[in-house]
Design brief:
The complex is a heterodimer of chains A (about 200) and B (about 190).
Chain A: H1 2-8, H2 24-29, H3 34-57, H4 67-89, H5 91-97, H6 108-118, H7 123-153, E1 155-156, E2 159-160, H8 172-196
Antiparallel strand pairs in A: 1-2
Chain B: H1 2-13, H2 24-29, H3 34-65, H4 71-93, H5 95-101, H6 104-108, H7 112-123, H8 128-156, H9 168-182
Helix pairs in contact in B: 1-8, 3-4, 3-7, 3-8, 4-5, 4-7, 7-8, 8-9
The chains are: A mainly alpha (about 200), B mainly alpha (about 190).
Chain lengths: ~200, ~190
């Protein structure tokens, strides 16, 4: 039961994007549509989960002082794996995400979880934590991507909804403004809920 | 000529923060005060320019060995080592500058702008001089956006924003407006 808790906490309560405000660069850059958001989210989840497991399994062997470089090398290895995999099997998505795939290495969510969670907990808990946080991140990216795609292009996942088009939404300012409004909303809802309890 | 185009385009048109979304974490994190923003900016200019020169050389080496799939790992290790080295070097030779840059140096390792510019240089297949000027332009653009934003944010503190929009949410919307202003530069130069 407690393992389930580790999994679910990343969805809303400790949502990496809206609550912890981590990993902002890919969040803003690739969410021009829902599919890109989903692809980026799943790639990050892959890296986050596996690096969490490896880091927590080697945590007792790693000397305290040089742990950060070691963590970075572990993370970079998984990023290279997903980069090559996507190049081979998902070429179009790989091309659109481009620069932002190798940049998963410096996504602060991954380093943050390694440092704050995986280096202190067992492998199974870390696996759950990685999946949960990763899916929370994916959810936020898909939400932001869907909103931007809906208002900017009139579609969601490529399916036409209406013919309304606000081009600003798919341009860089749209990313900032939409995310700003969403995280404002998140704070507002969180506060309302807190008052009720 | 291409060097200058790249340089100015990196500052205004492809501004790292406002158009490419690289280095958002320090952008939101250290932009509450003008002074710290400037310190961060200076550290980024220095590290970005030098590490892109080092990485360019290593990239050539990797390509000639046929090991270019190791690029990401090598680059991040180089950046992390270089930052550590700069920290030690400054501590010994120029303690006052070291004090001024303070915690910003270690933070830079995880700044995706640095790894971003290095990978971009490699993807765009730039020559050595082009790569260095591209990095210099990008870091100047980064610093400019950071300083402007910090100036706005200092003023923003005094206004009576609705409760949920204080902090990050308000900052993001402000950044959106700034990014809109910078879109005016779009299309000025074609590379």
């Amino acid at each position: 039961m407690s393992r389930m808790k580790e999994l679910v906490k990343g969805f809303v309560k400790e949502n990496p994007t809206y609550v912890q405000v981590l990993g902002m660069c890919p969040t803003l850059a690739v969410t021009t549509n829902a599919v890109n958001g989903l692809g980026m989210g799943l790639a990050t989840t892959f890296v986050l989960t596996l690096s969490n497991v490896v880091i927590s399994s080697i945590r007792k062997l790693v000397p305290e002082k040089i742990r950060i470089p070691i963590f970075i090398v572990v993370i970079a290895t998984f990023v290279t794996i997903i980069d090559l995999l996507m190049h081979a099997y998902l070429y179009d998505l790989w091309k659109t995400l481009g620069l932002y795939i190798p940049l998963i290495v410096v996504n602060c969510i991954i380093m943050g979880r390694a440092e704050a969670y995986a280096s202190k907990h067992g492998a199974l808990d870390s696996l759950m934590d990685g999946i949960g946080m990763g899916l929370g991140f994916t959810g936020s990216l898909v939400l932001l991507g869907s909103i931007r795609e809906l208002f900017g292009n009139g579609t969601i996942f490529g399916i036409k909804v209406w013919s309304l088009r606000v081009f600003l939404e798919i341009l860089p300012p749209g990313a900032y403004i939409t995310l700003g409004l969403l995280s404002g909303l998140f704070v507002f809802v969180g506060k309302k809920r807190g008052e009720k309890k | 000529m291409k060097v200058f185009l790249l340089f100015f385009a990196a500052i205004f048109i492809n501004n790292f923060i406002l158009a490419r979304f690289l280095g958002i974490c320090p952008f939101l994190g250290v932009s509450k005060k003008l002074e710290t923003a400037l310190g961060m900016g200076l550290a980024v200019i220095f590290v970005m320019t030098v590490s892109s020169a080092i990485a360019w050389t290593l990239d050539r080496l990797l390509i000639s060995l046929g090991l270019d799939f190791l690029r990401t790992i090598v680059f991040i290790v180089v950046i992390a080592t270089f930052v550590q080295f700069v920290e030690l070097f400054l501590k010994k030779t120029n303690p006052s500058l070291y004090e001024a840059l303070g915690i910003f140096l270690p933070l830079i390792t995880t700044n995706c702008a640095i790894l971003g510019v290095v990978i971009l240089n490699s993807m765009m297949k730039l020559g050595f001089l082009e790569a260095v000027f591209h990095a210099l332009g990008s870091s100047l653009g980064f610093t400019m956006a950071l300083v402007i934003f910090a100036g706005v944010r200092e003023k923003l503190e005094m206004y009576d924003l609705p409760e949920p929009f204080r902090g990050t949410a308000g900052a993001l919307i402000t950044a959106g407006l700034l990014s809109m202003a910078f879109m005016g530069f779009q299309g000025m130069v074609k590379i």
